[in-house]
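worker-03 picked up job from queue 'complexes'. Input manifest follows; three sequence lines, order preserved.
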Amino acid sequence: MSSHAATTDDPHAALAPLKKTSTGVENKKLAMWAFLASDCMFFGTLISTHLIYRKVYPTVVEPTEIFDIELTAFSSFILLMSSLLMALSVSAAHKGNIAGMRRFLLGTIFFGLIFLSGQVYEFNHFVRESGLTLSSSVFGSTFYVLTGTHGVHVALGVLWLSCWTACTLPKDWAWYTLKGRRFLWLPFRVVFAPMTGRYKHENALDVEVAGLYWHFVDVVWIVIFTAVYLVEYLPVFGF
Amino acid sequence: MRPRIRTPFLVAAGIAGALLLLLAGCSLNIEGQQSALDPKGPIAKNQYDIFMLILYVTLFIFVTVGGALAWVLWKFRQRKGDDPNFIPPQSHGHPMLEMGLVIASAALLVIIAIPTFGGIILKKVVPDELLENAVEINATGFQWWWAFEYPDYGFYTANEIVFPAGRAIKINLRSDDVIHSFWLPKLAGKVDLIPGQENFIWILADEPGYFWGQCAEFCGDSHAYMLFRAIALPEDEWEQWLEDQQRDTVKDDGSFEPLLAREDWGYPEDKILKGAEVFRQACAGCHSVNPRQQTNGPNLAHFGSRTSVAAGWYENEYDLLYKWIREPENVKPGNFMYRGFLDRDGRTVIMPGLKDYDLSDEEVHAVTAYLYTLR
Amino acid sequence: MASTVETEHHAPAPAEPVRDGIWRRPLKNTGLVGFLTTVDHKKIGIGYAVGALFFLILGGIEALIIRAQLMYPEQEVISARTYNQLFTMHGTTMIFLAVMPLSAAFFNYIMPLQIGARDVAFPRMNALGLWCFLLGGVILNLSWFFPGGAPAIGWFAYAPLTDRQYSPEMGTDFWIMGLQILGIASLVGAFNFITTIVNMRAPGMSMMRLPLFTWMTLITSFLIILAFPAITIALIELMFDRHFGTYFFNVEGGGKPILWQHLFWIFGHPEVYILILPAMGIISEILPVFSRKPLFGYPLIVFSGAVIGFLGFAVWSHHMFTTGLGVVATTAFAFLTMLIAIPTGVKIFNWIGTMWGGRIRFTTPMLFSVGFIWMFMMGGFTGIMHSSPPVDAQQQDTYFVVAHFHYVLIGGSIFALFAGMYYWFPKVTGRLMDDFVGKIVFYLMFIGFNLAFFPMHILGMTGMPRRTHTYKSEMGWDQSNFWSTIGAFILGIGILIFVIQAIHAYYKGKKSPKDPWDSRTLEWDTESPPKEYNFPYTPVIHARDQVWEDKYGVEAKRMEKIAPGEHGIHMPDQSWWPLITSIGLFIACLGMVFHKQPVPMTSEAVFGLEIVIAGLLLTFYGIAAWALEGPGGFHLHPDPAEYADAMPAPEDDHGHH
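worker-03 finished. Artifact:
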């Protein structure tokens, strides 16, 4: 009655049925778009909370005095550039250029990590130098929860892209290249080693879906950067 | 196959409907203490009128649409002996009819919308002609009682709001803990008391009267026991009441001895003096008897002249007051008079309650009697 | 179906599936393992239904205790605190654990059959939704067993009553985390249904040929993905307030309690339509069948459903007319709310139009459907009353409102869901439910319901606030309360008989044919119960009421069938990972509840965030293993007799569409 799937030799022919949905859009992509619509509402809610509260008593700290706008602008720029790299890796993925895709993915991850380090530095700085904490004022509450939620999104994105990067590595890659430093790489071995050697051409779709997520997280940052940081510097909104 | 119930749905629905109407007729207590169907002031009247208007509009729809539905169910039901394989014409819709019904419903809504707008304005804005001799009162909600302040006269009272009939009463609504809702059904629909926000309601009683009100927003354990009374007085009695309320009722030497003439005390002197002592030790930490001061608990300066106790839950009678002080936990679950006050973490006691005092029956009798001398 | 091909590459023709991680991929689809690892939308649908019925009974018992307490004035059947816990849990249970999952049960079971799909788009994600729902229900109800007991905050949990200062006990934390995990269940379900309906329709099944129930599933799913984020964020903010000292709703630090109300109702009002739209979909399926006529004004019903969903996001403040909104906001929200009466009215007109000129058979599902129209109409009328702020000022937070939403949620949703259960029971179990007993259930429920809730209109208008533990006899509410309690118990007896009847019919009921009701939509073209692969052939749709056209229509509108290709029908493999992922979330949520809270035995706070982190690690592990394992899959070859009249598959076909 039942038999397990037989192999198909030609990967390109295998891709064809993926398009066989009612709309022609792949299921995964459609689900990701639906998720992003939902995520818009998540961030919308958080951003409105922040905007409602940003001028509410008691503003213990003046935001413009604690913000380091140059640093934040720089990390925002880095995050935007990571989107470019992400787009390039998706393009490489579709062309079947695995090495190129891996390079661009690593670049995206690296830029994402720079952004995250910037955020960690910034949080640390605000807490230690300016005394802005979750419970110092409602501005602190909304600031950390909003930017922190975004940070978690970026971190999850970095993790996701790292997984795909690991998948593109040859099977058991880490074993041969990192001999002798196993202890240091143990976490990576545990997490990423089972993924190596798994990337197939049809996974280009999955990379593209991860890319959609990454672009969205970047775009949201532009809104947050404007609504949380820049707005404090505009005299019009500084009432 | 079991026998089918032959009674069509309609008959059952008809019987159920008739029963309900009968039941409704029996149990509808229009003049109940908190009935919104018995308005005694212009705002409640306006709200009642709009309610009745919508009731008639919806009754009209109920009769026409419901009638059509009932007729269809009756007319097109499968009767005994009908050909079970009969296929009625497969009509898919009638766009003009459907659009017509949409427009008709919109028209009905306009009938409702216009007076609604008037009602919104009326509730929010005191009419100019009433504004000049309006009385202002600040109401603050607590778990589970009400503080009323008369800012123009500088005194406080609790759980009973007294005002002159025929004049607009502007009430500023605040809360110091959770959300409450100020509701005097016979005078006006409710407005919430929200911490960190100043709300406002105005009321007007056409005639002098005695009204019941209740907190209408769930506010914790004893939400059900958070009532209040409202008394609309004729102008002369109102003036008298104002004067009385501003008077001190105890000596200001810290002895809490009543200022009321001893012959009017109504109880043995030593009982009252003992009551004063008990009050000083166990009650005065939260309850002020200075009419110009508001502390953690309800102001009791003129307690003896009030008509209710325990935030409107009991009438002000000796036995009930005794019960309230003797076993507050059984009258009003979770109340702070018994439990004491807790810190923001919800665990540390910052002000002891009656459970920490362990008063004897005699002491409770003394303090009960004492409270009636505060008038 | 994206899933097939991937497998074919991952697993080069294994006789046994590849061993991944610590667990062998489960193959047995029976018994406990089969249930815990299932990815079959039909089994998941049954799981939702059984869970939802369990919680419906639990919430019903809570309601009956509430009614017993209110039967006479100044009673002490239960304490005030217990009463407050009961109505909080009753509301939360009925909305999140009974009505929503019961709707989800139909989404899962019926919707893929109606569009001619072999399963939903992401079968394993579907399983995750089921486990999150069940574990969310567990978290919520665990609160009863810990110090302080269940939450006593009301189902909309207005701040600042939920602040640590006013609700120090863990009950509120259980409530927050329970809703959080239930939100995940609803969200993953909704992403899945949207993808399935948009992408996996049978050939020829255009959007305007979708059965109405599927349309309402789609609209409901959109409402879920757009409305749930608001409450998720509100709950996160509340969680931070309670555990990390933020000030989102705390006045002392500049927070505004009113923000909670806005966020809650931005979710809460669409939620109301999330509860009622599936019910409307079910009714729109049943009325045509038992009137032997197509749905009257199909496009307008679809459109009005969408308009209701859209307007649902623009009226949330009508729950807040008494909070001191300005004149402009009050007026705007009032008028927008009134507008909703129009699309709702359209549905009622069209349902009457459907029956008009038909041949109405009063079977049990039909009785429930007609009962639905009456009760929903009543609930709609009181809804129009609330839409007018001056009237609402008197009715808000009184028993009038309680009457209103029970008319739309019991008279509306529950009656429709019962109609659906009676209607689709033969399809799901392959057995018929006795019509005579069904009618007794209906009349008991109908009379009990009206007796219980009609007097509440009177109670509300004569001044009884909701959520009050007791009342004084002077108020004149004794009679109405007494009869209401009697009615509630009659309603309870009706539901009890239904449960007994369903269990009995499941084991002893008469065997049902494929199409016992002479129905119209595609699910009735499958076996009762449907085979694991739903359809042995690929249906090619040529009409809206395809099964009706096959029976009575013209030749040109008959369904075509395409036989499976040489590979047979592709089926997804079972998986442990949805269950493990949801257990990870469960542990993380429990950890958050116990964060810095005194636990039994010690009364000291012993847990920081360790449990949360452990739970999240398990969650991530589950997700990673889930991804590595891939959808998997195997091929089934139905008996050729099942698709004897089907056309052979095209050459390049891989056995599925």
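worker-03 released lock.
The CA atoms of residues 213 and 582 of chain C lie 29 Å apart.
DSSP finds 18 helices and four strands in chain C.
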